[in-house]
Each structure stands twice: as C-alpha cells, then as structure tokens.
Amino acid sequence: MSGYRLLENASLEGRNTFRVGARANLLADVYHADALVELLAYPGLQNGPLLLLGAGSNILFVDEVPGVVLSLAMHDIRILVDHDHHAIVRAEAGAMWNDLVHWTLGHRLLGLENLVLIPGTVGAAPIQNIGAYGVEVGEFIEVVEAFDRSAHRACRLNRSDCGFGYRDSVFKREPDRWIITAVEFRLPRQRELMIGYAGVPEELAAMGADPPRAAQVAEAIARLRSRKLPNPVVLGNAGSFFKNPILTSTDAQALAERWAGLPVFAAGDDALRKVSAAWLIEQCGLKGYRSGDAAVSEQHALVLVNHGRASGRNVLELAQHVARCVVERFGVALEPEPRIVGAVWQPVLA
Ligand code: FAD
Ligand code: EPU
Predict the structure, then answer these.
(1) Residues 181 and 91 reside in one and the same domain
(2) Counting C-beta atoms within 10 Å of the first and last residue's C-beta, which end of the chain has fewer, N or C?
(3) What residues contact 122, with CB distance under 8 A and at least 6 apart?
(4) 131 CA to centre of ligand 2 in angstroms
C-alpha cells in the first residue's frame, strides 16, 4: 500500500456540500503522513497549482480545477501531554471536526463544546478560525503543523504566528502556501462555560440543565444549530455565504439608528462592531428568493442553497445579486466567506 490514491479527471460533486459539479485534473487522497512527504517531492506538486480539499463545506467550485486537488485522510487523535489542569491534544488534518469535539468531551476536556456540529475537517479549522456561539477555535490552538510550500519544508506555527481574526488567519490570506497536516490544541479541564449567546440559556433551561455540564452545552447548541441551519445532507449549502460586515462603531451606530432592529455585536475591539448580514439580506426581501435552483435559504438568510441542479456559477451569480441589493439599500459591502474556486468575486462596494 503506497499510502495514497490518485484519480485522474475526478468528479468533485460528492466532495463539496453545495453539491455542485466540478472536476479535478488529478485528485490525490493521502492516507499516511509519510506518503504526503513522498508525493510532495514530485515536481508537479512542488510548484504547480495545488488545492487542499477537506470536506468541501466552505468552498464553491465555479469551474474545473487545474492541477492537483489534495485531500488528507489521516485522522489520528491523541493526547500528547496530560496535566491536572489541561492537556495538549493532537489531531491529524483529516479527522472530522465534530468527532474531535466529542472525543475531547469524552476525555473531560473543555473549550470546544460551543463548536459542536460545525461540518468539515480538523485541517480546515484554522483556515478561517472557525467560530460559533461566542467561541473561536484560535483561542485553543497551541500549534499548527504545516508544510510551507514556499520554503519547501515542514514547520510548526504557534498561535501567535497564525494571525487569527474573525473568519481569518495567515493560512486564509496565503491559500497556496500552506498545507496543514495536524493541529495541537491546549484544552483546560476547568473553565467557565460560555452560555451567553442568544438562545443558549433558553435551550439549557428547556433541557433542565442547571447548572449545565459541557456536554449539555454542546447538546443545546447542536439542537439550536439543527433548527436554524439547513442540513447540507438534505439541501446543498456551505453555511453562511457572507461574513458579518465589520464597521466602525460610529458607522454601526448610525446604521442602527436609521434601521431599527439591526442586530449589532461586539467585534473584539472597542472601535469596531459587527452587524448582522442575515438581517440586512432579509430586510431586502431576499429570504427564500430563488433564481432557478440557486436560492437564499428560507430558514436562514445568510445561507445560499442548491435546490438540486444549480451550478457553482448560478450560486455565484445569486451571491453577487444579494451583495448588490444590500449595498443599494444599506450602503454596506458584503464579503463572501467560502473559498471561491475558478472565478473571482467582484466586490460590490459601498
Ligand atoms: P473545505 O471546504 O474543504 O476547505 C475550506 C478551505 O480550507 C479551502 O480554502 C481549502 O483549500 C482549505 N483547506 C482545507 N483543508 C486544508 C488543509 N489541510 N491545509 C490547508 N488548507 C486547507 N464555519 C464556522 O466557522 N462556523 C460555523 O458555525 C459554521 N457552520 C457551518 C454550517 C454548515 C451547515 C456548513 C455547510 C458550513 C459551516 N461552516 C461554519 C463552514 C465550514 O464548516 C468550515 O469553514 C470548515 O472549517 C470547513 O472545513 P472543510 O474541511 O469542509 O474545508
Ligand atoms: N437573522 C435574521 N434573519 C435570518 C437569520 C438571522 O435577521 O434569516 C438575525 C437574527 O435575528 C440574529 C442575527 O441575525 O439576531 C444573528 O443570527 P445567528 O445567531 O444565526 O448568527 P449569524 O450571525 O447569522 C454567525 C456565524 C455562523 C455561526 C453563528 C452562531 C458568520 C458569518 N456566521 O451567523 O457561522 O454558526 O453566528 O455563532 O459569522 C458559518 O460561518 O458558516 C456559520 C454558520
């Protein structure tokens, strides 16, 4: 067994949660870390176009993918260091994120419970610093193990090297440079649970979880997520299609005064605020709007969905339409969250 499998002219339709059609010149599935080292020594992989693909839950394929698509399937999870008050857990890139969350809870380690049920792989989690219900993963990342294609060597990045921000990191800013092979997390055994996000206290109360345990917080958030977001197994989607716009506090306040009801959130900096993109889209009358099989979800206005036969280009055109409507009505620019492959997002400026 070579530790990898190559497939020419491979279909990617079953490998993206939008379930749009696309093909890769060459798809490489890698099952062992040693095989990755071997593969990366080939000249075509050293310098040619390369796209890392996890579970395809934050990607929109608009065209065929030239070069190689690399998918890492190594999925070991283990404790590297075990202390009374915390542990360092190492997970390989191909492990499923939600499996890791449940594994850590099973080992009585805290921190990841609010990130339950986020689709995708461990290797993709640092890319946009996944976040939900008041927690971002960067807070718990000790080291990202990666291969740096620009220096042709494996390296270890500490949390402070990763440039984590809201849906952002050095990895997202230089997507052709990094191959994340594993992530090490520093997880406490005791910590105050984060249960303040809208809807969570009510869900915990309905469950009779008082005071709640971490596993109950995860359960409450899983229930909320299942009600709020369309399930990609049933209806193709990639979660939020746009980031929540970040405005200066002054601009956000002026907008909220003009448009009563606009949800405004803290943005980790006193001078800045996040405003709800879902609300802006819904107020444009676009919730449930359909253009062929591409649509704005009826369940959540920030999610674009594929009702069956939409192509990546159909979804992209719908997204550009949504962004134009929001700029025209509110003067606020939306930026896409997923990676768009095979086309360039045309910014619709305020
Ligand atoms: P992919 O979609 O395969 O790839 C995403 C990006 O990461 C691409 O640029 C890809 O090239 C790169 N990449 C993947 N693996 C590697 C690697 N090993 N090394 C280098 N680059 C890599 N996100 C949130 O933050 N919070 C949420 O609450 C949330 N909810 C969601 C709900 C639904 C229903 C869906 C469908 C998506 C949601 N997402 C959410 C988005 C998505 O789940 C995350 O971004 C996830 O981390 C993507 O993982 P993936 O393995 O599917 O990555
Ligand atoms: N809202 C509407 N209309 C809708 C849906 C929501 O007006 O159709 C309003 C709600 O009233 C609420 C506000 O929007 O006050 C926020 O809604 P929600 O709590 O669902 O969060 P979000 O800002 O829309 C963000 C993340 C999600 C993450 C949730 C929970 C981004 C881009 N999205 O969504 O992440 O799960 O918060 O923390 O930051 C993703 O990144 O793919 C994703 C799903």
Answers:
(1) yes
(2) N
(3) 75, 91, 92, 93, 94, 95, 96, 97, 100, 182, 183
(4) 11
User: What was the pLDDT predicted at 42?
Assistant: 84
Is 53 a pocket residue for ligand 1 (Cβ < 6 Å)? yes
Same domain, 269 and 184: no
Domain total in the chain: 3
Q: Kindly indicate the confidence band of residue 137, based on its pLDDT and cuts at 50, 70 and 90.
A: very high
Mark whether 260 and 282 lie in a shared domain: yes
State yes or no: pLDDT of 1 exceeds 60: no
- Give the residue-averaged pLDDT of 216-220: 98
In a domain, 214, yes or no: no
Percent of the chain with pLDDT over 90: 94
Ligand 2 atom with least separation from CA of 283: 7
- The CATH number for 155's domain is 3.30.465.10
* Closest atom, ligand 1, to C-alpha of 94: 18
280 token code pair:
């802006």
233 vs 224: CA distance, rounded Å: 17
Catalytic residues: 167, 240, 337
- Same domain, yes or no: 39 and 130: no
The string of pLDDT tens digits covering residues 320-338 is 999 999 999 999 999 999 9
Which residues have CB under 8 Å from 200's CB, separation 6+? 133, 217, 220, 221, 224
Q: Is the residue at 229 inside a domain?
A: no
Does residue 211 form part of some domain? Answer: no
pLDDT surpassing 60 at residue 144: yes
In a domain, 195, yes or no: no
- Structural domain boundaries enclosing 337: 236-341
**Domain finish residue from 18, 53, 72:** 72
